[in-house]
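notes to self, project folder thing:

trying the whole complex as one job this time. last attempt i did each chain seperately and stitching them together was a nightmare. two parts in total, labels are on each line so i dont mix them up again. if this works i'll redo the older ones the same way
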Amino acid sequence: MIAHAIVFYIFSLIAIVSAIMVTVSKNTVNSVFFLILDFISISCLFIMIGAEFLGMIMLIVYVGAVAVLFLFVVMMLNVAQQKNEWFNSSGRSSHIPVGLLVSIIIFFELIIVIGGWKYKPDLLDSIAIEINTDLTNTQSLGSVIYTDYIHLFQLSGMVLLVAMIGAIVLTFRQRSGVKRQSYFKQISRDRKDGIELVDVENNKGVKIDA
Amino acid sequence: MAELFIFFEQIYRILFLLIPVLVSVAMIVWLDRRVWAFVQKRRGPNVVGPFGLFQTLADALKYIFKEIIIPASSNKVIFILAPIVTMTLALIAWAVIPFSETFVLADINVGILYLFAVSSLGVYGIIMGGWASNSKYPFLGAIRSAAQMVSYEVSIGVIIINVLLCVGSLNLSDIVLAQKDLWFVIPLFPMFIIFFISALAETNRPPFDLPEAEAELVAGYQTEYSGMMYAMFWLGEYANILLMCAMGSILFLGGWLSPIDLFPFNIIPAPIWLILKILFLFILFALIKAIVPRYRYDQLMKLGWKIFLPFSLIYVVLTASFLMYFDLLPGN
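result (full assembly):
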C-alpha cells in the first residue's frame, strides 16, 4: 500500500505543479505543454483509483485531440510574443479584475460542491453507493449511459450537434475562383472534350480559347 | 524484501520484452530497405554482416558518434524532449501486446484503448520537434503531420469499434481469443483494408509521408535534428510501424492463434505466429512504400474525412445490425 501512496503523491504533485505552471509560465506554448502534463497525470490518478476507462478516455480525448488543437492555435497565432509584451508592460491590464472575479466564483462553487455534505449530511449516503466489482468499468459505464440514461445521452448528443453545426456555419466561407479537383469530372472526361484536331493554315495560327 | 523481489522481477520482464523489440526494430529497418531495393531491382544493404543484417547496427553506431547540433534559436528543452517523447511512446505501447495467452506484460482491461491512446500521443513528438526547431520547413511538416494523424486516428477509432462490437471486451487477449473460430479479417475485410491504409497514414509512411516529404520540406520535422537525436526519431518511427502491424494482426489476423488448429501448425509456439503475422503486415508496408507515389495533401484529407470516416461509420451500423439480427452479440 505504501508504494501506492507514494505513486499517488507523485502524480498529484506533478498535477498541481503543472497546473500552476500553466498559468505562470510566460511562453504560451510551454503553458500548453504543462496543460498536457496535467492531463496525463490526472489520467494516471484516474487509473490509480480503478477508473481505467475514464483515464484512457481522458488521454485519448483531451491529450490526443483537444490539446493538439490548442497547440495548433497557440503556435499559429504567435501568442507567445503578445503575452510577453503583456507581462512586461508597465500599465495595469483591465483583464485582471474580471479574471479574479471569475476565479473567485469558481472557487466558491467548488467548495460548495466538494464540501456539500458538511451542511447536508444525507448527501453522504448518495455518494457511497456500493460498487459492483463483478462488472468492469467499461461495462458498468456503458449500461449507465446507454441503457439507464439513453434519452439524456441522446439529448447531449443533440446539443453537441447544434454546437458543431454552429461552428461550421460561423467559420465557413465560400471563396470564389478556387479551382477544385473533381474526381468525377476527371474520370468522365473523354477524348472528345480534351482534344480537338485542327487543320492549321500556314502563317494563320488558331484561336485556342474559343 | 518480497516487494523488492517483485520489483526486480518486473524490471527483468520489461527488459525481456524491450530488448527484443529494439533488436527487431533494427532488423525491420534492414528488411524495409531490402524489400524496397528488391522491388527496384537493386541489392540493398548487403555488405555489413550476413546479408547485410548488421547494417542498422552500423548506422546506429555512426549516429552515436556524430555531433548533436542544437540550433541556437531553438527552444532547447522541447527540442531535446521531442525525440525522447517519440521513442518512449513507441516503446511503452508494447506493454499490453499479448504474445501468447500467458506471455503479456500488462493484461489490462482496456488494452485496446491504451494502445489507441499511446498512438494518439505519438503526434506530440512530431509537433514538439517541428515547433522547437524554430525553422520554416520543420514547422510546416509538424503542422501537416498533426492534422494528418488526428484525422486518421478518427477512422482507426471507428474501425476499432467495429472489432469491439464482435468481441464485447476491450482486453487484447479477449480480442484474440474471440477469433478462435474465425479471424475478423474475413467478416470485416473492408475494415481491415481501411485499417491498413489508416495505419500507413498514422505512422507517416509512404504514400502518406507528407510530414517529411523530401521534395517539398527537406526532411519535415526532422530537418534540424542530427546524430543520436535523429536516430531516436527514426527508431521511434519504426517501432511505431511495428506496433501498428502488431495491432493489425491482433485486431484482424487472430494475434497469436495459428491459422488452423491441426497437427503441424499447432505445435509452433504462439509468439512465433504473432511475429509471422507482424512480419507479413510489415512486408506489405514495405512493398507499398516501393510501389505507390505520394499523395497530395488535400487528397489525403479528403480520403480520411470524406471516404474512410463515413464508410467505417456505416460499417459500424451494418455490423451492429447484423449481430443484433442474428443474435450474435457477445455477452448474450
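what i see at first glance: The mean pLDDT of chain A is 81.
need to look closer tmrw
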